[in-house]
């Protein structure tokens, strides 16, 4: 067999070995089923999150423990994901955040009853992975005669704060669009670690005397970057009616109650399962999140074989899919070049696969040098049959073909133009040997 054809065969088999679906490593968390629902409406539901379906088997492992959402019909066959009764609009793996919708609390003067009508809202995420984001949200109060409080745990917890919004001389003429510093609008930050949130209006401040130009007051914890004050929010119901009385809310989420250091000690529950992932302690409440290592993309909560962190380009993955399917279906010979199939026995192909797996061995220090690879390719090119192979196959630390294959990754090969890629390896092989013609 010509040497350059063997080199290409080694490269293809090596990449295929590294991406083949080997069973999960012993002690690792169970793999989610490939049949898990990953979209609800137009919202992607990436693992560790998952959609809970009635009658679903726990063996599907569609979500990490505590990360199940529901996909509900909100009317007219429009589906949206929910955590409890709170709608989820977006989930970010990299930031460890989710955007949800929060109801606006209101206090309005009723001209018919001549009394104030209060509509207070609260949220309780206790026992979930979610914590109210201290960096992404601000408690926002609107009105001309308004004092509103925010507290945790039904006013019986450890946190309580307030914000007051007033209008000078009971007039809105001094209010300024975009300004939220106490005149018609007030904002205040919240501390870290809050999972419970409740709004309460101080009844000593009401709109009974100013209802003719500012009938309602509003208060809500919301995404600060989504808000810009408008004077019409004080003089009309615009703020409460624009999006059905709901505004964006940022939630920080994490694998809760353990630090990275402690979590790594238990392989059966450690969530950062991708070989190319890193663990970061949560900055908001106890727990940790996982991110792909620099230069890699994907889902760090999944094993590399299931869509974890990889540096392989999407086009290359698509090409590999056909190769892997051929291997599974026993059609590999039809996929390979006819010259290779005619010239090489299956024994030689097996030897090439062993060499390819050793080139991808982890850690990289156990891989053969390029010189050694070139020597092995030369010997394979000279062998007509496996029985005539003059030397035993290259073995690294006495590890078997399957053992090496199960630890390999293509990501270190294809991490960008500054690192050794699949095609650059082939070029180096071509340049370091003389072809057997």
Word description of this protein:
By secondary structure, this protein is of the alpha+beta class. It folds into 4 domains: 3-23 and 311-432, no CATH class; 28-92, no CATH class; 97-252, no CATH class; 254-302, no CATH class. Helices cover 22% and strands 24% of the residues. It has 11 helices and 20 strands. The chain has a 7-stranded mixed sheet, with no helix packed on it. α1 (3-19) crosses α8 (346-359), α1 runs antiparallel to α11 and α8 runs antiparallel to α9 (370-382). The chain is elongated and about 100 Å long. It starts with a helix and ends in a 5-residue tail after the last helix.
Summarize the structure.
The chain has 437 residues and is an alpha+beta fold.
